[in-house]
Each structure stands twice: as structure tokens, then as C-alpha cells.
Design a protein that fits this description.
single chain; 421 residues; ABC-type vitamin B12 transporter activity; Rossmann fold; 15 helices; binds adenosine-5'-triphosphate; six-stranded mixed sheet; six-stranded parallel sheet; nucleotide-binding; 2 domains; 34% helix; alpha/beta; ABC_transporter-like_CS
Length: 421
């Protein structure tokens, strides 16, 4: 097989008066799956079309699988690069099988299947994309998602070392999205190279080896998903306020776009843990408060949320008690805060110092959670009772209102009754 490497050197592409791609340098090694991401109009389709040789660059060079795609014949390019375009309409009323067989064109003068190798390639491509059952139907009669799979089948039938895909999952249901990307992964693991424009950042992070983030025609980031999908880079490229966390099932980065922060003012310290504070952290941050949290064990679910939301956290190593120095840091945060909120926390001796620090807050909100374990020590129970006696005990739904109330800020739900202790 030819080397399925892609080399882009100092690429510039103008469309009309607009410079769409400018100064792009990138190499994609054989056997990699690269996700092209970026906001609408960033130049993803333009870059893919330039890689496929269907769009001429204004300057720079593209080599795909040992071929200068600008200078080579369409047939030579077609034997190396297959393209799955976005929203293509097929001009004539071909059958699905005819469309898939078009993938064999670089090997013949006609798109008709002419030998056993063609038939096998077409059959296999249709099976792998689950379109065999539509083989005889007119391409005009299949749904948008089915058509997209037919176009993927056509690209597979082309049997090229390089695959370029423009939004291959855009009109697919979740099951076919996963099947399509699993299939691309399989092909890549078999030695092909794939570059796909993908809008869904979570899917891109889950399936691609690397992400190339295009922004304003240039490369803002290129590397493993966890290095490229960072809140600052998403802010710069998408102009989005986004939180990046690890997906609880796949472990890969997942991006949650957040609304612009509101104009609430005040400092709020949260004492949480085990995921009990996650929603409140989000709500407080989005409202615009200056939020901190702790003490928390490093890697705790609330610590992950705090990290994703850029909320400073006081932490201790996992499975360690809060020591005096850490308790001091919590106390400092509590005294700087206008309001301290305690969510459902670990009532144990190891965490007593945190509860005691929180109990000294000027304004304290205690969110009703699970009752503490029956076996806690008398000291821990005393800290817990003191906390509840000093604070205003509210339900989780009323926590945000209670903070606003404590700050005398306006709140849309102020008239809702609060479960005072
Ligand atoms: N033929 C053209 N003439 C002028 N401008 C064009 C032409 N084709 C594309 N553009 C512009 O080039 C820019 C990049 O378009 P492109 O389709 O490559 O973006 P994209 O990243 O694929 O966007 P999307 O996420 O919306 O699919 C856009 O601003 C687009 O309007």
C-alpha cells in the first residue's frame, strides 16, 4: 500500500476576496484518524476539498499518499483519496448500488462494475455500511441518513489508503453515528488514514486520535483531544463559554457549552463532595458569583466539576483527613466569602475541621442531604449539629435562592417558601 500520509505545507486558500485558509501546516501520519473541528465558516470543508485536490490552493502544497494532488490526474488522486461529501445530491436517478459502484471509477473508464474485484468491493462496502437492503432502490428514495451511508459505501468501494469525510455523522441517528465512526476507526486501525470534519466535539474526542482545531483559517490546536479541547481554546475559537469534563462512561473529554455568566455579585464558598455540589457550582458560576470550593479530595466528582468550571478548590489527597493547614485555608475562604453553602457532605472525623470552619461563616446555607451515618463519632455529630443550628437549612432546589437571599440580591424565585430549620 502507498504511504497513506498527508502533508500540508504553508497552505493558503482564497475564495473570492476572502482568505479562508491561511498558513496551515500539518502532517497526518498513516493509520491516524484526525477530527477537523472549528466553528461554522472556519474552513473545514475548504481544507478537506483542498486535500482532495478539488480546490486549488492559492499558495502552499498538499501531498497525499505520495502524490501532489494539484498536479496529479483525477484518476491517480481517486486511487488514493476517497471523499464522503456533505449533503450531496446525485444528479440522476441511479440505484443505490450504481452509486456505490461509482467508487470503482478510478479503476475503469465507466462506473459500471466490470469484474469480480469490483463486485466484491461494492458488496463489501455495502455490507459494512448496512445499505445492502437498499441496493436496488433509487438513490432519490432513500432518507438523508441512508444516503449518507451510501456515500460512505461509495468511498469504501474506492479502496483508497486515505479517506476524507465531511460531517459523516451529521444526519445519522445515534446508533448509525456510532457505527459509522466505529467503522472509520476499524479502517484506520487496518492502516488507512482518515480526516473528518465533525461538529459534535464529544464524538470527535471519543473516536479521533487527534483533533485539528481550525479557527479563522489557521490551526489553533492540533493534538490529542484532551490537549485541544480546553476551555481557553474553545473560548478563543468558538467564542464559547464551555466546560470540559471527562465523560463518565467513555472517559474521553466532553464539552458542555455554558450560557454567558450573569451579573450576580458576591463571593460564595461551597463545602461539598462526592458530586453533591456539582449542580450548585454550575448554577452559581452561570449566575456570575465568584465561587470557591473545598476542602475536597483530589479527583472527587465535585473537584472535576470545579476544574471544568474554573472554580478554585482547596483539596487534600484522596483518603486523607483534612489537616490543620488545610482547615486554615478553608477558614480563609469562608471568611472571604459573603455566603458559605454546605451541600451534602461527608460527616466524618476526617472532615470535621472543614465543617467547623464552615460553621464560622457569617452567612451559612446548609443544603439538606443524606442523613449522616449512624456510626459517626459523637464529635463528628456535634460538628454536624452545630452546622445545621448555625445555618439556614434548605432543599437543593432552593439553594441558589438562599444564596441570593443571603446577599439580598434579586432572585426570580424569592417568593418561594424556604424550609427553615
Ligand atoms: N465559493 C465561495 N466563495 C466565497 N466564499 C466562500 C466560498 N466557499 C466558502 N466560502 C467561505 O469560506 C468560509 C469557510 O467555509 P467552509 O465551508 O470551509 O467552512 P466550514 O468550517 O466547513 O463551515 P461549517 O462548519 O459551517 O460547515 C466561509 O466563510 C464561507 O462563507
Amino acid at each position: 500500500m502507498t504511504d497513506a500520509r498527508i502533508d500540508v505545507e504553508d497552505l493558503r486558500v482564497d475564495r473570492g476576496d476572502l482568505t479562508v485558509i491561511d498558513g496551515v501546516d500539518a502532517t497526518v501520519e498513516r493509520g491516524r484518524f484526525v477530527g477537523l473541528i472549528g466553528p461554522n465558516g472556519a474552513g473545514k470543508t475548504t481544507l478537506l476539498r483542498t486535500l482532495a485536490g478539488t480546490l486549488a490552493p492559492t499558495a502552499g502544497r498538499v501531498r497525499v499518499a505520495d502524490l501532489d494532488v494539484q498536479r496529479a490526474s483525477a484518476r491517480d488522486v481517486g486511487r488514493r483519496v476517497a471523499v464522503v461529501p456533505q449533503n450531496t445530491t446525485v444528479a440522476f436517478d441511479f440505484t443505490v448500488r450504481d452509486v456505490v459502484a461509482m467508487g470503482r471509477m478510478p479503476y475503469h473508464s465507466m462506473f459500471k462494475e466490470t469484474d469480480d474485484a469490483d463486485r466484491r468491493a461494492v458488496d463489501t462496502a455495502m455490507e459494512r455500511t448496512s445499505v445492502t437492503q437498499f441496493a436496488k432502490r433509487s438513490i432519490d428514495s432513500v432518507s438523508g441518513g441512508e444516503r449518507q451511508r451510501v456515500l460512505l459505501a461509495r468511498a469504501l468501494a474506492q479502496e483508497t489508503p486515505v479517506l476524507l469525510l465531511d460531517e459523516p455523522t451529521a444526519s445519522l441517528d445515534i446508533d448509525h453515528q456510532i457505527h459509522t465512526l466505529e467503522l472509520v476507526r476499524e479502517l484506520v486501525e487496518g492502516g488507512k488514514t482518515a480526516v473528518a470534519a465533525i461538529h459534535d466535539l464529544d464524538l470527535a474526542a471519543r473516536y479521533c486520535d487527534d483533533l485539528l482545531l481550525l479557527s479563522d483559517g489557521g490551526v489553533l490546536g492540533y493534538g490529542p483531544p484532551e490537549e485541544v479541547l480546553t476551555a481557553p481554546q474553545l473560548a478563543e475559537s468558538f467564542d464559547a463559554n464551555a466546560a470540559v469534563t471527562g465523560d463518565t462512561v467513555t472517559g474521553t473529554p466532553t464539552v458542555t457549552a455554558l450560557p454567558d455568566a450573569g451579573d450576580a455579585e458576591g463571593r460564595v464558598h461551597v463545602v461539598g463532595g462526592g458530586g453533591s455540589a456539582g449542580r450548585l457550582l454550575y448554577a452559581l458560576t452561570v449566575a456570575g458569583y465568584d465561587v470557591s470550593i473545598g476542602a475536597l479530595p483530589e479527583g472527587d466528582a465535585d473537584h472535576e466539576t470545579a476544574r471544568a468550571l474554573d472554580v478554585p478548590a482547596v483539596t487534600v489527597p484522596p483518603y486523607t483527613a483534612v489537616d490543620a493547614a488545610t482547615a486554615e485555608r478553608v477558614a480563609a475562604r469562608v471568611s472571604e466569602a459573603d455566603v458559605t453553602v454546605v451541600t451534602d457532605v461527608d460527616v466524618s472525623d476526617g472532615n470535621r475541621r472543614t465543617l467547623d470552619a464552615a460553621a464560622r461563616a457569617d452567612a451559612l446555607v446548609v443544603v439538606e442531604g443524606r442523613p449522616p451515618d449512624e456510626r459517626i463519632t459523637d464529635d463528628a455529630r456535634e460538628s454536624y449539629e452545630r452546622l445545621r443550628a448555625r445555618g439556614r437549612v434548605v432543599t437543593p432546589e432552593n439553594a441558589l435562592d438562599a444564596v441570593a437571599d443571603a446577599l439580598d440580591g434579586p432572585t426570580p424565585n424569592q417568593r418561594r417558601p424556604m424550609a427553615d430549620d
